[in-house]
């Protein structure tokens, strides 16, 4: 075999050996499709709870967004766009009307401030249309009353703040009312108990849609328990225990806080407590 041809054969053989070891050159992986944003419409109205108004944005818009959580477009809407005064006296500008509900995946109603009266027809009609279109409708705390006025809770399980349970049962007799739970998920209609249960409810919505791992990452960023079962009691009647220091050293700690500029020796504190040095030392250790 001529030298040139023999050298070419050896080079070809070497390349085949390398390919056998490393395998065929892989094709570039297709780019991952970006997660589709979730559209959230949050109702605002005069006297709305500032806390409840903030919870959806805090939970769904947590930063930095953990892996697996798609972007959430949180929009605020009102029956009448413009300035809205919250329950804490803060005024916010709400540029959008109820048309934001027409394209939302999630519609959230914060605690309603007039549960004894029916919600305006324009609002309940917008909620009924959003629900009929397939949106998930959520009533936080007394927001459940608005969902009830819209007829969305008839023959469904629901809850609300424990303080208004009698009124709720009176106004909505067709509802399967669960008074002692944190939140109730009945298909695409969700209701929650009062105040802080709104965070549990929104975390559960993330758990539903994106899985427990994503919900746990969000909870970790919010420094809140990752999961409280919806069936957990809203509260437990339990007296606050009396601290030993409150009964054994009456008034001493308060006096000490008010006189930090003075030397607080053991003898001085014992005198304030009307005890001997030895007795004060023993009581202090027991506390």
UniProtKB/TrEMBL annotation:
Organism per entry: Acidovorax sp. MUL2G8
Pfam family name, one: DJ-1_PfpI
Domain HTH araC/xylS-type: 250-287
PROSITE patterns named in the record: HTH_ARAC_FAMILY_2
Protein name: Transcriptional regulator
GO MF, any single term: sequence-specific DNA binding
Domain of life: Bacteria
Annotated coiled-coil segments of the chain: none
UniProt xrefs under PANTHER family: ARAC-FAMILY TRANSCRIPTIONAL REGULATOR, HTH-TYPE TRANSCRIPTIONAL REGULATOR RV1931C
Keyword terms of this UniProt record: Transcription, Transcription regulation
């Amino acid at each position: 075999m001529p030298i040139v041809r023999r050298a070419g054969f050896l080079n070809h053989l070497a390349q085949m050996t390398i390919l056998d070891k490393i395998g065929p050159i892989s094709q570039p992986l297709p780019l991952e499709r970006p997660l589709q944003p979730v559209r959230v419409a949050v109702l605002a109205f005069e006297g709305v709870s500032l806390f409840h108004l903030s919870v959806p944005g805090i939970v769904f818009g947590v930063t930095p967004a953990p892996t697996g959580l798609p972007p959430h477009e949180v929009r605020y809407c009102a029956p009448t766009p413009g300035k809205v005064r919250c329950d804490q006296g803060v005024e916010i500008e709400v540029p959008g009307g109820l048309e934001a509900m027409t394209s939302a995946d999630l519609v959230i109603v914060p605690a309603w401030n007039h549960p004894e009266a029916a919600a305006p027809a324009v609002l309940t009609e917008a909620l009924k249309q959003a629900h009929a279109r397939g949106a998930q409708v959520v009533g936080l705390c007394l927001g459940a009353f608005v969902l009830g006025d819209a007829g969305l809770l008839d023959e469904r399980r629901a809850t609300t703040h424990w303080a208004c349970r009698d009124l709720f049962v009176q106004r909505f007799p067709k509802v399967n009312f669960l008074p002692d739970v944190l939140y109730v998920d009945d298909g695409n209609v969700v209701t929650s108990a009062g105040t802080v249960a709104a965070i549990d409810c929104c975390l559960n919505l993330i758990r539903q849609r994106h899985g427990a791992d994503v919900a746990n990452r969000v909870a970790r960023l919010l420094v809140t328990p990752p999961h409280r079962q919806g069936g957990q009691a809203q509260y437990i009647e339990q007296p606050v225990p009396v601290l030993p220091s409150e009964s054994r050293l009456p008034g001493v700690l308060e006096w000490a806080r008010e006189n930090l500029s003075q030397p607080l020796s053991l003898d001085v504190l014992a005198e304030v407590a009307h005890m001997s040095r030895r007795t004060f030392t023993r009581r202090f250790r027991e506390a």
